[in-house]
Please model this.
Amino acid sequence: MQKHLIAFTKTFVQHYAFIMKTLKKSHESDTMSNRIVHISVQLFSNEELARQVTEECQLLDIMVTVLLYMMESCLIKSELQDEENSLHVVVNCGEALLKNNTYWPLVSDFINILSHQSVAKKFLEDHGLLVTWMNFVSFFQGMNLNKRELNEHVEFESQTYYAAFAAELEACAQPMWGLLSHCKVRETQEYTRNVVRYCLEALQDWFDAINFVDEPAPNQVTFHLPLHRYFAMFLSKAVKCQELDLDTILPDQEMLMKLMIHPLQIQASLSEIHSNMWVRNGLQIKGQAMTYVQSHFCNSMIDPDIYLLQVCASRLDPDYFISSVFERFKVVDLLTMASQHQNTVLDSEHERSMLEGALTFLVLLLSLRLHLGMTDDEILRAEMVAQLCMNDRTHSSLLDLIPENPNPKSGIIPGSLSFESVLSAVADFKAPVFEPGGSMQQGMYTPKAEVWDKEFDPVMVILRTVYRRDVQSAMDRYTAFLKQSGKFPGNPWPPYKKRTPLHPSYKGLIKLLHCKTLHIVLFTLLYKILMDHQNLSEHVLCMVLYLVELGLENSPEQESDEEESAGGQERCHDSWFPGSNLVSNMRHFINYVRVRVPETAPEVKREPPASTSSDGLASSQSSRRKSLQRENSGTAQVFSLVAERRKKFQEIINRNTSEANQVVRPKTSMKWSAPGATPQLTTAILEVKESILSLLIKLHHKLSGKQNSYYPPWLDDVDVLIHTEIPRYSHGDGMTAVERILLKAAVQSRLNKRIIEEICRKVTPPVPPKKISSAEKKTLDKEERRQKARERQQKLLAEFASRQKSFMETAMDVESPDADIAMEVATSEQHVSEAIYDCVICGQSGPSTEDRPTGLVVLLQASSVLGQCRNSTEPKKLPTTEEEQIYPWDTCAALHDVRLTTLQRYFKDSSCLQAVSIGWEGGVYVQTCGHTLHIDCHKSYMESLRNDQVLQGFSVDKGEFTCPLCRQFANSVLPCYPGNNVERSLWQSHSNKCMQDLVQEVEDLQEQLGTFPVSISSETNLSKEMESVMKDIKSTTQKKYTDYSKTPGSPDNDFLFMYSVARTNLELELVHRGGNLCSGGASTAGKRSCLNQLFHVLAMHMRLYSIDSAYNPWRKLTQPSQDKNSELISEELPEVPVLYRDVSSLLLIQILTMPQPLHKEHFTCIIKVLFTLLYTQALAALSVKCSAEDRMAWKESEALKKNASSGEKSWEVLLGHVISELSKGKIYEEEEAEELTVVNPDSVECYLQQFCLPFLRITSLLQHHLFGGDLPSCQEDEEFTVLASCLGLLPPFQSAHPFTSASCLDWPVPAFDMISQWCSELALFADRQPDQVKVLLIQEPKWDLPRLLQLPENYNTIFQYYHRKTCTVCTKVPKDPAVCLVCGTFVCLKGLCCKQQSYCECVLHSQNCGAGTGIFLLINASVIIIIRGHRFCLWGSVYLDAHGEEDRDLRRGKPLYICKERYKVLEQQWVSHTFDHINKRWGPHYNGL
Model:
């Protein structure tokens, strides 16, 4: 076998070039390359095989040559630097080869074989190969060049940068990391020397090819310098792992100067891009700037670049380096002591952010230690802390954001031990919670308190942020931590963090902090900030102080105070500062400075005193002009950044002498110039008389806003000088930073300490008042302007409101001329105030009237939630095996359905349709956000929505809209019935009418059905609206849920539907309250309940149907019938016996057919009568349950007690009577009673109360909505008594004897007569259908609250069962299987196989199972989708991994576990019908799910 394999591999290698050629030409390169890699990865992953082929078939040569050949086909001339004469060629990123990543199979094979030590060793030893490889890498050097557009916005934004970044990462960086992984030990030094040598040769060739001398071409940038990065990374490895002496492999100074130019150019360009100077190049340039620092690229791009700059800085002259930086960032002209200057290369609006950029870059350069001495674990920790400080992160996003060593074999594999241990050390886990706004939180990691306290490093955050806002976010979080922990109340500045020590090879980097150029810059900036010059910011000050502090922390060796002070004076003449040590330079006083300013500047008028330092920072004079100045001013001398560089570069000076005089480019827009004239620059002498120390102290005063705010702390407590690490200095604002720096300066040198004390003793003169020049006025801080704008806005709004109010008042007066008469009336009946509604559209408030009705914003939705109640307390489980199937026989909806069908079989249809309620499935639920609007305003609002072309998440044609005020989803408006709030109290006065009179009144009121209040019979706007809303309610649910009659379209259907809507809404409110009324209180929704308005609308429609008085159920309940035989004669089916009728339905029929508003006493009367019926039903049900012997016993005891006075109120007596009456029929004939175990009085009492409770609950809710008044709260065992007394059923009872439910009975006519009559109906029925009598008796209802199916703990259980399960309809395994979480049905999502009349299966199921609402778990994605009507949304997942994260589409393949809290929330939203309000991202599904 092995032989064959070797033979095959050799053949494969011999054909390698041909295979790649074919690949390049192929159109379907993706499929082909996948197939090639499948073969090659198996051949080349075997180290033994790879080594053999390398040795015998020159595999490496073939690969590199093929790669080279491949790229050569798409080279173009480089336009970098010298466009005309450039000899350098680069790949063209627009070519298909790069755009489609066609080269990746090759590169991946190459990386694969380089992972073998033996092969890599061969590569690193073979000089010829290295030369070829560097040649290959140089094709990518300088590719995708960006040229800054200065005039027009670029027409076409090229997206080639994707290809460029991918190419550099895959073709250059990945092989580099592969090679680096073999250079880990001392013995491999030779390899590093080889790579560095050929890399430098390639770089030298590149510099020659592009004709580079020393100045980069302006307005150009390329982010791709792979040769620089190879050089940098191998240097870093050499020092870190191989103990090589850096200087032995570094090139000469001139080469270093060239090497630093392009990486520095990138840093400056980043700053330009963020300052919007490249805005005309389009968004793609921002994309490049982001990709360059993004986590997958940063350690192959920005990190090596900064490291290379650190190496150059540590070896080059510091003054040269610092001046190069400011020159690259184009802010040299800004660094002048003069208050005005001219910048020849930068517009003034960009100066501030470019200066911030330059300083930030210096801080990064001097603070970062990623390659300068940090260990891998320290790096990982720093990276992690930086990411966590920006935002809380999930585990997977952290893994993604931490730049790992890109080479897969490098050993730091994310998720390895160190990652987890570092994570647990720096972060706390926040379990996934659900926010009230409805957004789902994942499990997050958040930094520990001590991390904020000790490790928050703003520098690292700045380096790693892709978006600038993340830096702000980190600072905000830091601020919040300090406030919370009480460490600092105000707005803190970024904290200063101590750095890990530098590796000895890079000690030269410290020189940057101790060079005169930097000190002059720092001095100048401190002075400018103190004098409030324009274009400076707190950020600039912050960075300046940071650099000062870095300098103090890293001072070279201790200076000897005495010797310095003696010889110091003489040496000052030649320049600003005596030496280069920051510690001593800080105290050096600078008296006069010569500046170049425009003639119009305020500084011009002074005469130069004798001794002057001169600041030529802003001038670009030639050396000639400089010598003239020296003659004039004696001791004054120009120190110019630019001049300093010119000394280093003789040839530039020669080139530029002639141009020096025309240096000032005319600029008409100079703010302070006379129109049209270009101000001339002249020299002025400034009196300064400050040192860095004195500037710091004055800044402290300025920041605190108090004179003499700084007092040296060591005067009170000498210990501060010894223990410098004082916690109170570690967090704070600018003042804290200044105090910390002054303390460090004092600790480092006695002289500094003395001078600080001296400065503080002299009472500082007040800071000169700020003269605002017109230029500065324009740059008044944006914040201030915003603040003012905000105040103005508030003032305007307040004014509007008061104006509107006064207008409304006057308007109202005009409208009612007889206002005074109205007033008198009002005083006499003050309590009859009308309900006032505010319209949220026009803002006016007033009552709802017949002509201009107001309406509530409502959402009507069909709901089958009630139908899902089951009569078991165990929730059903989602089936995960073939055995566990769910059958919907025991659901509430199914049982109600069966009952109605049975009734319809034996009784008269119209009477059946009043004996039950429907709406358990497909009932209409009405909810409101509580806001009202005029119905005419609503119509115009809808019109405007219709014309609005914006894509909305809802369909205006279906009447959908969002509430104009709270944006809650709605689809109709429910008219408010004109009338008053307080009428309720009028009707509540208890009259002393006796029961008989009330019964008669109720009957009379029902007789008047035909006559309506005038308003309703005549067509008014109100009645029209009521009709239209009724239509809306009807059309909300499907036809099958409204038609139950045997004769389609019969009015009985409508009648049934309407009172059932009321029933559905009451029942649902009960469910929302947890199934009972123990909690009491106002309606949970309070203002959000619309039942009152809904009742008016329903009542108005119900009264259109008159009930034939002969059939009026009220009579049957209150009058013993005269002739008992009439029913037998008629042919047709009999009416439903009263004992088979649902009492709650009867209640609603009675209430809704009475003229509104109803009197409380009539309401109570109806309840009392219905309660007697309910009680009798309970007794009948009970009688069937007990055994024959028990029945005999009850019957006999009843006969004895019957004549006792309290007989009508004792259940024993009544039960006996019921039994004796029912025995007359064939009811107890066949005996298979599921007997009550023990029939003792207590269990009977309990049974009766439980039987009556549902009715009492519904009635109490109804009373609460119709008449106001809170619901009392109570314990569960008292619920019956409390509700009964609340409803007025319970006479004020004496607590002497125990309470029985029968004491609530109040019979309108003798009880025994009524009971006999009701029972006789059953007896008659029993004669005809003996088997059905018991079935139809109303049983004790025991519904549990609606629940979703219970899900298994582990997602895998579901996945394994369902993802291969075949669909029952089409018997195929669905591509996207889904399962309904309400009933467990398995469906094909989007499956065309199960489509019926253009409806896909999920949509169809959502209509059948949930009347339009479906909750489906997508098996292959672990997410839940909600279908609501014609819209759907992704709800999220209830299965999370061990880190509390979702795994949508199961991409990460982590084990997932149920999150009970989330599932509870899903269930809660389902039961409360709030999917539409809480989930924001809805889209239409076009029936395609």
